[in-house]
Amino acid sequence: MQIRRMNSIYRTILCIKIIPLPKLDQCLMDRQKNSSSINECFEKGPNMVELIPTIINKFRLRKFSIIADIETAFLQIGLQEKDRPFLRFLWWENGDKEKKIYQHKRVVFGITSSPFLLGATLEHHLKQRFQDICNLQRRSY
């Protein structure tokens, strides 16, 4: 279900409890027939999949390489106040009785633009503080 209000679309979220891990819920955004999915509303950014073969080849050629697990990195990237209304969602506390409106304050993992936003954020911070590492990283591609 979605509700239009003040040039915004509020999407409902369905959370599924994942049995093996007690504090982990999987939340899914609802998509109605004849409406856009949330990923269709965002720009993807450049296709980074095309870079994978080049990165793998250069990874093998270098003496040293760095890898990282970035699973939680997306949650470290905050959204500006003006962008938060685009990630609003509805939540019902007690069935259909109490409706609450929330909005994400962080980049949401799984949205089309998330990988690009993470890459751009990392590059921005490397440029600000570690220019030599940024130049080295740039030559790696």
Task: Write up what this structure looks like.
The structure is a single chain. The protein is α+β, with helices and mostly antiparallel strands. The protein is 26% helix and 21% strand. The protein is built from three helices and five strands, in the order E-E-E-H-E-E-H-H. Strands 1, 2, 3, 4 and 5 form a five-stranded mixed sheet that branches. A hairpin with a 2-residue loop joins strand 1 and strand 2 (8-17). The longest helix has 16 residues, at 114-129. It is elongated. The chain starts with a strand and ends with a helix. This is Reverse transcriptase domain-containing protein.
**Care to count the β-strands?**
5
Which class best fits the helix and strand makeup? alpha+beta
Oligomer: single chain
Largest beta sheet, briefly? 5 strands, mixed
* Terminal residue distance: 43 Å
SSE ordering:
EEEHEEHH
Helix content: 25-40%
Rg from C-alpha positions?
Answer: 19 Å
Count of DSSP H/I helices: 3
Indicate the mean pLDDT. 70
Query: Percent of residues in beta strands?
Result: 15-25%
Extract low-pLDDT stretches.
none
Q: What does the overall shape look like?
A: elongated
